[in-house]
Amino acid sequence: MATERALEVKGLRAGYGAAPVLQGVDMVIAPGEIVALIGRNGVGKTTTVRALIGLIRATDGTISLNGRDVTATSADARARLGMGYIPQGRDVFPRMTVNENLIVGELIGGPSGRKLHDFVFELFPRLAERRNQIAGTMSGGEQQQLAIGRALVGSPDFMLLDEPSEGVQPSIVQMICEALRKIRTEIGTTILFVEQNLDTILSIAERCYVMEKGRIVSEIPSGKVDAANIREHLLI
Ligand SMILES: Nc1ncnc2c1ncn2[C@@H]1O[C@H](COP(=O)(O)OP(=O)(O)OP(=O)(O)O)[C@@H](O)[C@H]1O
Fold it and tell me: What is the arithmetic mean of pLDDT over 9-26?
């Protein structure tokens, strides 16, 4: 039976070595929601995403994906259970072509990955034109599109993006926002993204979690996501 909780995080604590960063993070995201994680610099947004996908270990608390406790599983296992991750700074394979990057992503997605390969080219026609180009020679915006495409062909139920608009020119940011909306509408993917760019948040977030000092301190609910409510949480 489908769960009403794509992601449920309870009392999550994590950090780097002896330095705790997350001090008990709680969040619940419904299937198909698009949620922004916002907050000032250094409050722990990237650390939250890295703990959710399993790149750093939880020292306490639980993470459940579609009702299944994944707290103790590896990043690789979480990817196979449906978590797709687009890190800050893109991180595509720079010496491979666009096509080769997508084929590597398909290894996680299995048979449905191949169909999504074509969908990626529909979402991002620029990638279709440049399918044989070496990824490292493309612009930052094109590499961001490819990073999203590579995660998408892994056929994730749940996508996590860390500052997808960072270093990307505004016209491409709009295209990326449209693509994320389309991914949700056409495939039903749940999306959590860390973002500092007000326009991007206003364009796609249905709800926001506000983070301070390693905790979620408030939520901007659906219908209240506007510039006045968000701006105060974005200042450095
Ligand atoms: N690899 C690391 N080793 C040790 N401390 C780290 C490491 N990465 C981040 N930190 C520290 O963890 C805290 C939270 O950092 P994090 O990157 O999660 O914040 P953030 O909210 O994403 O900030 P920003 O908006 O600047 O990216 C900061 O104090 C940071 O210095």
Answer: 94
Check pocket membership of 161 for ligand 1, CB cut-off 6 A: no
Residue of 46, 160, 196 to test ligand 1 pocket, by largest number of atoms within 8 Å of CB: 46
Say if 236 falls within a structural domain. Answer: no
Q: What is the pLDDT of residues 89-118, one digit of tens each?
A: 778 999 999 999 999 988 877 777 888 889
Whether 1 is covered by a domain: the verdict is no
CB of 23 sitting under 6 A from ligand 1: no
Cβ partners under 8 Å of residue 92, min gap 6 = 101, 135, 136, 143, 146, 147, 150
pTM: 0.93
> Degrees (nearest 5) of the Cα angle 105, 101, 79?
20
Residue 87 DSSP class? -
Asked if residue 233 has pLDDT above 80, the reply is yes
Q: For residue 215, give both structure tokens.
A: 């905790």
Ligand 1: centre distance to CA 91 (Å): 18
Could you tell me if residue 2 is inside a domain? no
Backbone dihedral angles phi then psi of residue 142, each to the nearest 5 degrees: -70, -40
Question: The domain that contains 43 carries what CATH number?
Answer: 3.40.50.300
